[in-house]
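So, who can interpret the following?
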Amino acid sequence: MKSFFAWAASITAITLLAAGASFASDASPAPDPASEPAPPPGVYVKEFLPDVAGGTKRIFSEDNLPLALIGTGLAGLALTQDHRVKDYFQDRNPMEHVAKIGDKIGLYYHVVVGAALWGTGELVDNKKLADTGDVTLQALLVTGVSTELLKYTVRRKRPNSGNNMSFPSGHASMTTAMAASISGMYDWDPRLAIPLYATAAFVGATRLQANEHYLSDVLAGMTLGTLVGASFAKYHKEKDASTSAQRLTFLPLYDRDIRGGLLVYRY
């Protein structure tokens, strides 16, 4: 019961932090273009699959190459330390009492957070908050499918020999996708990014403690989650900026007594 209340409180905290960031941007001198009334739920449903396709394409953009190389390099280096790290966690048991919490968070916590952000955004009529929840759910879908494809392709045996689905860590990839998508939507505000990535790191560490994954599995999962989550946030912001630009039209005015133009904003 205590773990349930802690779990619920953390979801509420993330939702409130994101909501606070949204309202803070609304009150700033230069309003966020996404800080508008939330569209009806039907709009999100209609655009969900096209946005999934667009966000997926954005993953393979050239600007993601440095992150992919760094993450792959770190996971590769971790391969040399996998068994040493495994022995440390199994001999010392530094997270023995919280391993089950990490397991629960990594299973469905991220989906609930995404739904809570979207629902809260609709409830308080805040587009950016609702968009963040929508983007998070899209990123989680693609991350989940990608993770399973990699697991069935690589077929790495778990350290506890339970099955051949060790690489990459799904708990780490999904929790990090949540962290990256929310952080990306709020321009990597440290007030959001730090606790979100701390949660992802905690989940990854508990998977090591549970002897379900090697260190390289966790780092690969976190790299995948960051790539997908950040890409979906970028795609949405680029799409939103493009839509806003299309709403703004310049009409030249030429008359005997007038030389100028008129800016028209369609809403």
Notes: Residues 40 and 190 are 30 Å apart (CA to CA). The first strand starts at residue 248 and ends at 254. The domain at 2-265 is CATH 1.20.144 (Vanadium-containing Chloroperoxidase; domain 1).
